[in-house]
Structure formats: structure tokens, C-alpha cells
């Protein structure tokens, strides 16, 4: 039997996580579809989605509500973005992805979920996609590229966001550095830009050498 958790839109059977499938019958990345009391859920797999890994690791900053508007940077083929879209059913997930290959896979996922809007664009240049985006409340970023904190700050300010979640892949910053020092340096950069850091949660072992940094007011 699947039941709700303390996090809005996140469900569990006591062992696994789920979101309510907003595109019934459709899986995005081969995840299991499960029906419980006539509602279809999609399993949310922590080794495939860093946001699920964050929840599994005890992350508590979860700013997604039914009507939340989210800017998602590094959407790839829509694995995590589609789970967020399941949660923000009356909101919008603006999905920015730079790779044409991943974007090709993202488009059909967005076509089956009307609250996902895809942009083939570079997250370091928010001016290139800001034309189609209004009222961003939450920035979610997962791009494996050097300068992750600075790209997040740029977008956070460009869209006057209220809060956000930033994935830091330490090896994208410096393979030779201790990951803990990279997370601390990213936190320092966010704070120097005037952003309030709420928590830093390491995602190991589900996502090796990654941490999630939560920023702003929920
Ligand atoms: C680790 S994957 C994202 C996985 C995805 N967030 C998920 O959980 O389903 C990182 C993605 O960021 C994209 N990326 C890297 N640099 C980018 C940039 N400057 N602008 C937009 N996307 C970028 C990559 O092409 C890749 O698809």
C-alpha cells in the first residue's frame, strides 16, 4: 500500500519512493509503474535521481508545492524533472538542457506532461531563455560543469528566485580536491553572493562525490 510522506507529492510503500504519475501509462527511464487504490505511481529511484537521493539521505528542504514554478538547469532526458512535474501539477517546470542528444529525448517527455517546457540552451546564459520564462520560484540545478555555484547564482538572481537546490559534483570542479572542501567552497560562494544556505547534504553512496546544497526560503 502506497501512502504520503511528510514531503508534499512524495509517496512511499515503506521502502521505495514514488510520485503520482501525471502521464498515466508512461514511464520515463524504465522505472516501475505501480497502481495503488486506483492511482498510478512511478517509482522514484535514488540511484537515478539526485533529488530522490537527497530525500533518502535525510534532506528536509523540499520547496515543491502543487503550484510551484521551477527553473530546472541540466534537465538531460527528464528523469528528475519529470518527477518534479508529477509534484507541481498546477505549476511549471522550465527545463534547460544544452546537449542536443539529451534534448531529443527530453522533448517527448515534455509532450506527455504539459507542465514541462523544454529549452535547448546554455545555463551560463540566462538571457538566452529568459524570454519564455516567467515567475520562477525555485531553481534546481544539476549540471556537471566547472563553476556550478556561479552558474546557479547567475540564474537565481536573473530570475529573482526565492529558493533553490544545487547539486555539486565535486569532480567537475577539481578531481584532485577533497569533495568536502569543494562543498565548503561552493557554500562560501553562495553566501558571498548573499544567498542563505539552509543545508548541505552529501549524496554518497547513492551518488558518489555529490552533495545537494539547499538555498533560500522554502
Ligand atoms: C548529470 S546530468 C543531469 C541529470 C538530470 N538532472 C536528472 O537528474 O535527470 C547533467 C546535464 O547537464 C547538462 N549540462 C551541462 N552543462 C550545461 C549547461 N551549461 N547548460 C545546460 N545544460 C548543461 C548536460 O548536458 C547533462 O545533460
Describe the overall structure.
The protein is of the alpha/beta class and 218 residues long. It folds into 2 domains: 42 residues, Phosphorylase Kinase, domain 1 (2-Layer Sandwich), CATH 3.30.200; 167 residues, Rossmann fold (3-Layer(aba) Sandwich), CATH 3.40.50.150. Helices cover 26% and strands 27% of the residues. The protein contains 6 helices and 12 strands. Strand 11 and strand 12 form a beta hairpin. The longest helix is centred in the C-terminal third of the chain and has 14 residues. Bound molecules: S-adenosylmethionine. The site of S-adenosylmethionine has 19 residues, from helix 2 and strand 7. S-adenosylmethionine binds next to helix 2 and strand 7.
**What proportion of the residues is helical, as a percent range?**
25-40%
Q: How many β strands by DSSP?
A: 12
Choose one word for the global shape: globular
Could you say how many structural domains there are in total? 2
Give the class-level CATH name of the largest domain. Alpha Beta
Spell out which ligands are present. S-adenosylmethionine
Tell me the strand percentage band. 25-35%
| Widest beta sheet: strand line-up | 8-7-6-9-10-12-11
Biggest sheet overview: 7 strands, mixed
SS summary, helix count = 6
Amino acid at each position: 500500500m502506497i501512502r504520503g510522506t511528510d514531503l508534499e507529492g512524495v509517496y512511499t510503500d515503506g521502502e521505495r519512493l514514488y510520485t503520482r504519475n501525471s502521464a498515466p501509462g508512461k514511464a520515463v527511464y524504465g522505472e516501475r509503474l505501480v497502481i495503488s487504490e486506483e492511482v498510478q505511481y512511478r517509482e522514484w529511484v535514488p540511484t537515478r535521481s539526485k533529488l530522490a537521493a537527497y530525500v533518502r539521505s535525510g534532506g528536509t528542504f523540499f520547496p515543491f508545492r502543487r503550484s510551484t514554478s521551477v527553473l530546472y538547469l541540466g534537465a538531460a532526458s527528464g528523469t528528475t524533472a519529470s518527477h518534479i512535474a508529477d509534484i507541481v501539477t498546477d505549476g511549471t517546470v522550465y527545463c534547460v538542457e544544452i546537449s542536443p542528444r539529451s534534448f531529443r529525448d527530453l522533448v517527448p517527455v515534455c509532450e506527455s506532461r504539459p507542465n514541462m517546457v523544454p529549452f535547448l540552451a546554455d545555463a551560463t546564459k540566462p538571457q538566452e531563455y529568459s524570454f519564455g520564462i516567467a515567475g520562477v520560484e525555485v531553481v534546481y540545478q544539476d549540471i556537471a560543469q566547472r563553476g556550478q555555484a556561479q552558474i546557479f547564482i547567475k540564474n537565481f538572481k536573473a530570475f529573482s528566485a526565492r529558493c533553490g537546490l544545487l547539486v555539486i559534483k565535486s569532480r567537475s570542479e577539481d578531481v584532485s580536491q577533497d569533495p568536502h572542501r569543494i562543498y565548503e567552497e561552493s557554500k562560501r560562494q553562495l553566501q558571498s553572493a548573499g544567498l542563505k544556505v539552509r543545508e548541505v547534504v552529501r549524496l554518497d553512496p547513492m551518488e558518489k562525490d555529490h552533495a545537494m546544497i539547499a538555498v533560500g526560503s522554502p
